[in-house]
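Service request form, structural biology core

Requester: graduate student, group of Dr. S.
Request type: structure prediction, single chain
Budget code: on file
Notes: please return the result as structure tokens.

Sequence provided:
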Amino acid sequence: MELTLVSYNIHSGIGTDGRFDLERVGAVLREVNADIVALQEVGDFRAVTPREDQPEHLADMLGLHMAFGPNVVRNGRRYGNAILSRLPILKSKNYDLSVGRREPRGALRCDLDLGGGTQLHVFSLHLGLRMSERRRQEALLLSSDILREAARKDPLVVCGDFNYLGNGAVPSLVRKAIHDAALELRAPARTYPTRMPLLRLDRIYVDAGVRPLEIHPHRTELSRVASDHLPLVMRLEAPIAVETPLSPPVQLIG
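Core staff response, request fulfilled:
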């Protein structure tokens, strides 16, 4: 079975024109039509946008299962990472990647049902702006408490906004047997800023259980304005096809 996955920093639904428009973000995701949607910067704890239910609204808009991992909760306003999926979500867990007094960060893990007893473990994460902060977060991510906690007999995808300014590999991740899909496919995958993408802030890593087939930034008139990041889209080959009908969408908040 082939699946499409997208990693997308939606910038709280605020576009490059300064307008909040979550419907526009939803329209971009409809253009992509992915089976798995990994989102970053979902929600708004500073109360500069009118919606407090951004992940729920996007899931309802697209008719997908949803899990949300808030990294900041303030006065009822939440902010963090989300995963939307056509595949049933068997389990979700949010991991704290915060460092000191820097902005709270996290990684959301979802175990998706591929059928036949096989799961796909998907992580959506957002790392910090400083190099020293990211190095500590990468160490946390690679610890036994996070990546190794997933049942490694099943395939693994780690994606999100790494805030890594170089266009090459993130060395610490490459040494741990997960591979940068864009480098593996020798594909251009620069996603930031949208008007003139120069940087590969957004990345998708896979382990040996996932075969990436194609990866590209989604560049359309709409995606250039909906957020300051372009969506990064990967087509992949999953090991086992889904053999049973999907259950109705459910929402997991954690």
